[in-house]
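Sequence in, structure out. Go.
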Amino acid sequence: MNGPTLRELAVQGLSSVERGYDLLAPKFDATPFRTPDQILAATADALGTHGRFERGLDLCTGTGAGLGFLADLTTAPPTGVDFSAGMLAQARKAHPDADLVRADARALPFDAAYDLVVSFGALGHFLPEERPALFDGIHRALRPGGVFALPLGRAPKPTHPAYWLLSGFDLVMRARNAVWRPKFVMYYRTHPWSALCADLTAAGFVVETTPMPGVGELIVARRPPG
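Output:
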């Protein structure tokens, strides 16, 4: 499948987040934005040390890259949630047995329903001031003792070209959002580990990390039992 053209990416980038992903959905899996299989496999290996789970939720599932991963870790069919109807349509084609829900991740419609929640590559779509509502909703969606698993790649150092590439992307995005509406929120350098840990702890999670060799680390945030 051919990826999007530069014109299609430009149209997406000048749209809202929801509309942009609706437009990109049919070609999303041919872009570098899809979660790499290496990260999915490393996350599965790291979570394997925490046992098997009954029900799992893939937050901001997109076209469903995380749904197959969840199916191997849970006994019940996985659930995916996203607010882009276009992305969910693609996920439904690839994972017809999954339960797919259209909802805003900042207002999840679940209450103590899942043992495991995962999210891949979506944090950049949430501003720092939106994380408390996001993490509160995830905490509420988990059963007591449930786990929120959040893989984080290694942050590049200033001596690495990727550091300046990501910083430059964020700068361009801030300039775009200052002069263009609707905004398209996607930033790479707004969620350092220390800030995530503080926000997760404030939401009531007990936070630990598990190394993922060659990839980064997995944040394992557990809703305390009882």
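Check: Helices lie at 6-13, 17-24, 37-47, 65-73, 85-94, 131-141, 161-179, 193-202. The first strand starts at residue 56 and ends at 59.
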